Amino acid sequence: MHIDVVHGPNLNLLGQREPALYGRKTLAEVNAALVALGRELGATVTTFQSNHEGALLDHLAARAGEVDAFILNPAGYTHTSVALRDALLAVQRPFIEVHLSNTDAREPFRRTSLVADIALGRIQGLGPVGYELALRGLVCHLQSENAV
Ligand code: DQA
Predict the structure, then answer these.
(1) 38 and 71 in contact (C-beta within 8 Å)?
(2) Residue 148 has pLDDT above 70, yes or no
(3) 22 is a catalytic site residue
(4) What pTM does this model have?
(5) Residue ranges of the domains in the chain?
(6) Which of the listed CATH numbers 3.40.50.720, 3.40.50.1440, 3.30.70.360, 3.40.50.9100 matches domain 2-147?
(7) Which of 26, 99, 108, 143 has the smallest number of Cβ neighbours within 10 A?
């Protein structure tokens, strides 16, 4: 089982960026915890971050053939990117949308997600633990699919 975790713009600044909203853990720490949890659950976890919309689209297309599922925090592109939605529809891989903060409890424009309705599920507001719950959820989902 191979799950790829994709982080969108500004998530490279985790730890320094608005810590009251996003916490004090760095992206490297979040990713390391996911790789370790993957090992426990029998899943290979790889990670990717970009501040560039096209790089995220290219990454999804390039990796889709090798991975079973994605965990995706599209960050600011959640609310704006039709191209990201189209890329996810094109690659046909299940994904869970994760947000560190509760986007429904912030500015009104953050209540719109252009990917929510095509995600397998959505976790927000729980900080980095949201990624871990997404990983556990995807492993269960993939195991039950393989058992059918
Ligand atoms: C975010 C929420 C987005 O609205 C914001 O643009 C981000 C991070 C989150 O994880 O809470 O960059 O996706």
Answers:
(1) no
(2) no
(3) yes
(4) 0.97
(5) 2-147
(6) 3.40.50.9100
(7) 108
Neighbours of 104 (CB within 10 A): 12
30 C-beta closer than 6 A to ligand 1? no
The reply to whether 99 belongs to the active site is: yes
Write the pLDDT tens digit of every residue in 53-74.
999 999 999 999 999 999 999 9
Q: Which of 7, 22, 77, 131 is catalytic?
A: 22
Which atom of ligand 1 has the smallest separation from the CA of 98? 10
- Paired tokens of 79: 């609310």
Q: Is the CB of 99 under 6 A from ligand 1?
A: yes
Residue 81 in contact with ligand 1 by CB distance below 6 A = no
